[in-house]
Amino acid sequence: MAEEKLPRRSEDFSAWYNEIVSRAELAEHSPVRGSMVIRPNGYGIWELMQQALDKMFKDTGHQNAYFPMLIPLSFITKEAKHVEGFAPELAVVTQGGGKELEEPLVLRPTSETIIYHMYAKWVQSYRDLPILMNQWANVVRWEMRTRLFLRTMEFLWQEGHTAHETEAEAEAETLQMLGVYRTFMYDHMAMPVICGPKSDSERFAGALRTYAVEGLMQDNKALQAGTSHNLGQNFAKVFDLQFQSREGTLEYAWNTSWGVSTRMVGGLIMTHSDDDGLVTPPKLAPVQVVIVPIFKTDVEQAVVMGAADAVFRELKAAGVRVKLDSRDSMSPGAKYYDHELKGVPLRMEIGPKDVEKNTVVIVPRVELSKEEAAKPGRKQKLFVPREGLSERVRQLLDALQSQLFDNALARREANSVRGTTSYDEMKALIERDAGFIYAGWCGSAECETKVKEETKATIRVIPFEEFRSAVQPTHCIVCGGEARHEAVWAKSY
RNA sequence: CGGGGCGUGGCUCAGCCUGGUAGAGCACCUGGUUCGGGACCAGGGGGUCGGAGGUUCGAAUCCUCUCGCCCCGACCA
């Protein structure tokens, strides 16, 4: 049958990405332009992301709630910057029940307006603060060009919305949630991200400050994987979100909002996957281990299936997400390719020889540097005793999780350029897709715009201290003026 | 909205120029032999060619209109 190979990443990255999404059955286009159907394999990843994040939100004191999808148009237009930012991508409902509506409704592009409108009703005094809520929802933004997971007209996300007594408290919340995203991306997605504030031009419409986590994909384009906003009192003022303070005065509350979306699934794909298909970190893999039984005769089949089933039950009892691939009419080899394409972290082969020796063969999806190396041109194969198997499997899953992180971090650092002081050199670097470019910036919008217009690269983030270069730039790479920040520049999704 | 491409079984595509009433590979179904890196043989089901109109004895093929999709550029999580 010889299924066609995937396009190579090095030859056509976006064709490679599209093929993975399609062939691993993660998602496909719906009949409506720009919107997508998320299939079980893709949704399974999203569900695991949700579970992990939801727990982190609860652990930091947040509660889930749900606000409706239809928002009065007048709400959106109340905050000047907010309308300006979202007007071009609004989907508006003008008819209902066969009649023209008195006031058009928009499909939420984000929920600040409706949420702060409601908070205003719930808050009287400082005793009602803080409000710490999150919602899991879909949002709609009319996009010109779409890519599955990375940018679609409707997407799934979570949006946290909080209200606080003081600016300091709101700022602390904004940073705390950015930290939650960062931890999630490190520990679960195995995706190293750099964190920090956005420049003014990249700030969320209506926010005081926007912070982001940014990953570097394998084509050296940056992906904004999550944002956290300090909204100041902008929305509170517009929606009359006031409270009586401890001193008896009437004050506007301070708000934050923060979100991550199904875009992370795209980030996951572009961070780890290879020319053989999808690669999923064990913590987010709907199937962590797949067992492929191997046999020729009926007698062998009975013995092998017995052993495979026992292993299956043992792993399942140990809390491993395991699947026994008992499809007949498909050769073991064909199954190997299939599971590699779909990104299953560990493949376990059980055949007559294994049963005889009381072992199994485990093949990790990505080579583990701490295990016996693979023979040249072959996949790494580990011969594992049946005794203590579930413990060993756990250990290998953990090892794979950290291996993926290490690989991604090494790749990002190999594609980060620091110390450039010449604008011409910077242009040349961007021209050949060099990755993250750390350079001095005077802080002016003029210099930022100039770079964007001349190179298509933008400031992804002004990195927090721990992400900054050892030697800090002293001059703006564009105008040569005094550098107020070190900025990270890259082309982005 | 500007530039390019494409709509033919589930998928990828050939056929269109030089009209004659639809074909391949993969997938699917049945039976048998296979099975430690993409199995093979035999048999079988499934499309009226994006839509509408026109030319013609006859249209997937020619003409007109129309709808939709994809890719590249201007906006964005």
Question: Could you describe the 3D structure shown?
Answer:
Helices cover 35% and strands 25% of the residues. The protein has helices at 13-23, 40-59, 73-76, 80-86, 112-122, 167-187, 234-239, 263-272, 298-317, 332-342, 352-357, 389-414, 423-431, 445-455, and strands at 27-29, 36-38, 63-64, 70-72, 91-96, 99-107, 131-140, 154-164, 194-197, 209-216, 222-232, 242-244, 250-252, 254-261, 289-293, 322-324, 346-350, 359-364, 382-385, 416-417, 436-441, 458-461, 485-490. The protein contains 14 helices and 23 strands. The protein is globular and about 80 Å long. The protein has 3 domains: 13-272, Bira Bifunctional Protein, Domain 2 (BirA Bifunctional Protein, domain 2, 2-Layer Sandwich), CATH 3.30.930; 287-398, Anticodon-binding domain (Rossmann fold, 3-Layer(aba) Sandwich); 416-490, C-terminal domain of ProRS (Translation Initiation Factor IF3), CATH 3.30.110.30. It is an alpha+beta fold and 493 residues long. Strands 3-7-8-14-11-10-9 form a 7-stranded mixed beta sheet, with helices on both faces. A 5-stranded mixed beta sheet has the order 16-15-17-18-19, with helices on both faces. A 4-stranded mixed beta sheet has the order 20-21-23-22. The structure holds one RNA strand of 77 nucleotides.
